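Retro notes (design track)

What went well: tokenization of the new backbones is finally stable.
What didn't: we kept losing track of which sequence belonged to which structure.
Fix going forward: every design gets posted as structure first, then sequence, in one message. First example under the new rule, 115 residues:
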């Protein structure tokens, strides 16, 4: 289990999986390339919002299928619902204190430009 928090800590999310580093990626779509986050990929049932749900804002673009959530106070992207894998969330690994994204040697790139 991991706890994911935005910068101001108003949004707190529990991640119920043994290792968030089993499946992670970056995306090169027009939105993600600017965001720059390393994203862990988890099943929907492994994410539980503990607090701050009312602080989450939603951003959709393009075909408006993916739902990107961010804290309306500090602006930090916390997670999004994948439209290519609707049974999964992508989470911002940078929001988990126990994960050091700078230690990841190879980060796979999801080809979001083609979608």
């Amino acid at each position: 289990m991991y706890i994911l928090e935005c910068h101001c800590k108003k949004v707190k999310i529990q991640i119920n999986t043994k290792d968030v580093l089993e499946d992670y990626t970056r995306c090169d779509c027009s939105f993600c390339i600017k965001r720059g986050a390393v994203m862990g990929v988890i099943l929907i049932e492994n994410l539980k919002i503990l607090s701050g749900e009312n602080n989450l804002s939603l951003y959709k673009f393009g075909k408006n299928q993916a739902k990107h959530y961010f804290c309306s106070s500090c602006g930090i992207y916390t997670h999004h619902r994948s439209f290519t894998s609707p049974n999964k969330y992508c989470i911002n690994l940078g929001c988990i204190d126990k994960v050091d994204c700078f230690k990841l040697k190879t980060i796979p790139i999801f080809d979001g430009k083609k979608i």
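Added context from the reviewer: DSSP finds one helix and ten strands in the chain.
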